[in-house]
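#structure-requests
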Amino acid sequence: MSLFNRAEIIDKNFTSFVKSGNLPQARIDLPLSHTNIKPSDLVSLFESQVLSRHMDLKARLMKDDGKCYYTIGSSGHEGNAVFGKIFPYTDMAFLHYRSGALFIERSRQTPGTTPLYDLALSFTASADDPISGGRHKVFGSKKLNIPPQTSTVSSHVPKAVGVALSIDRARDLDIQERELKNDSVVLCSFGDASINHSTALGGFNTAGWVTHQGGHVPIVFICEDNGIGISVPTPENWIRDSFVNRPGYKYIACDGLNIIDLIEKSKEAESY
């Protein structure tokens, strides 16, 4: 066991808080009874979150044994499992590198997928890794419409915008052989640090510029804002203020720590 294992510390703290009932107060008063959410859906989401957390723990243990060469944990971002449930797997997803729960939950939509096994192959740099051939620890799946990305912050944003633009373009050109349906949307998730990078800003600007002129860019940008951009604090309300009045955008805020609110707001975004 390594001297300092953040995944283990997070897991112990989580278990302690649950056992003691010392849970954070919800910032949004939205009881389950006021929604159409099924309790069984919450159980499914929680299972995906727990599986993601266990993969974080297993990766660190394997690394200590010299069996895993590289780890990027998803701890703290497990709420993104909601996006794996609300958005169909036919919607292409360009994912933030802490999207374990989303990846696992989306896999439930297609029988025969093996997300945990695929991730384990990635951890061990196996040549049989279906995501990147063992070359990198990322999330990806051809069957689930998740193109593998680099872990370079925000480098996937312009690609996601390009795919979103291609949906209408392919229809206009009557291209028959294509992966995405006419009513598909593209998901693009990232952390709060990403929106300050010139690469991301170019993608955001292109999407807004096209929409402002009457074009159609069916993309859902998902910012997983935890207030820390890599190791630098993100100014309060910076994400909201950067997008709420941006031309061509519909801004939807939600509490990422409240899964009920997250589900309802995700449905709103999906139907917009």
